[in-house]
Amino acid sequence: MTAVSVIIPVFNGASTIAETVESVVSQTFQDIEIIVINDGSTDETLTVLSQFADPRIRVFSYANAGSSQARNHGIKKAVGEFITFIDADDLWSTDKVELQLRALESDPDAGVAYSWTTFMDEAGCVLYHQTPAYDEGDIYPALLVKNFMCSGSNILARRSVIKAAGEFDTHLSSVVDWEYYLRLAAHCQFALVKKHQVFYRKSSTSISGNLPQVESNSVEVINRAFQQAPQHLQSLKRQSLSELYFYLARQYVRYDHGRENVVTALQKMRQAVRENPQLLLQRQVQKLFAKLLLLRVLPQNKTDLLPDAEQHQPTAATPQKPASPSTKAI
């Protein structure tokens, strides 16, 4: 029996799928199957995939139904004892599967392992590294407040907990991963690999264009989660909403300093503070407020002089091979 099933949903991913698949076949842990679910691609995705001769790769094609349904198809095809997912434009460090698997094997009570994320742009250059989260064991309360796993390319889970959680929600068009992780965290513990192993590709156009949908879906997920959460965690709901509105405020002005975006960002900041007034004590919140106020009064042609938060000098986002296969998570 194959140890690990890697599921890759792809729709029109010809420009990135080869690099993604290469980061999977190059894993230091080799007892894997790679299930690529072609979600109705109309570009050269299948042609690119046909160039791989690795017998561990299996490709299945379906009519376009979205990434959530593609993952569900992949789960049904998987035979591994453990299951993991990676989107068709993301990358892994070569030791990602090995160290996450080791974390689960060393903790029989944990059903899911996760790592930290590095964010890169469309060209594959590093933008910034996720501020490390150290939650493990019962992460459910912390995950109710914020999705610190960042993307759908992160977790490695036991097949049994994937089966217990059920399928990905095909109704949601965003924050699908957070909703799924919440279901997992509600009934199993998580193990942490303290290393940036996931390289998540951000698209400025997709983020800026979908923020109203992100907000709508996030509020739906928050409401649904707290309807099911135990009474002693209900007080976290306002903090969860506050984190959402603070995130939205940052995103509205990350790529566009236009007046409309600035006004909307200020509205989201006010909502964030209204839900959690203590947010104002955080330095990053104070800095964003100051930036937004400056953007509000500066002439339009001067707004590009203000740097975006979390942006760093771009560097190549090539996942590095670990020093040796025996490298341990710390």
Give an account of the 3D structure.
This protein is an alpha/beta fold. The chain has two domains: 4-202, Spore Coat Polysaccharide Biosynthesis Protein SpsA, Chain A (Alpha-Beta Complex), CATH 3.90.550.10; 220-296, no CATH class. It has twelve helices and ten strands. The chain has helices at 17-25, 45-49, 67-77, 96-105, 140-145, 159-165, 176-185, 204-209, 211-228, 237-254, 259-275, 283-297; strands spanning 4-10, 32-39, 57-62, 82-85, 91-92, 110-120, 125-129, 156-158, 189-201, 315-316. Strands 1, 2, 3, 4, 5, 6, 7, 8, 9 and 10 form a ten-stranded mixed beta sheet that branches. α9 (211-228) packs antiparallel against α10, α10 (237-254) runs antiparallel to α11 and α11 packs antiparallel against α12 (283-297). It starts with a strand and ends in a 14-residue tail after the last strand.
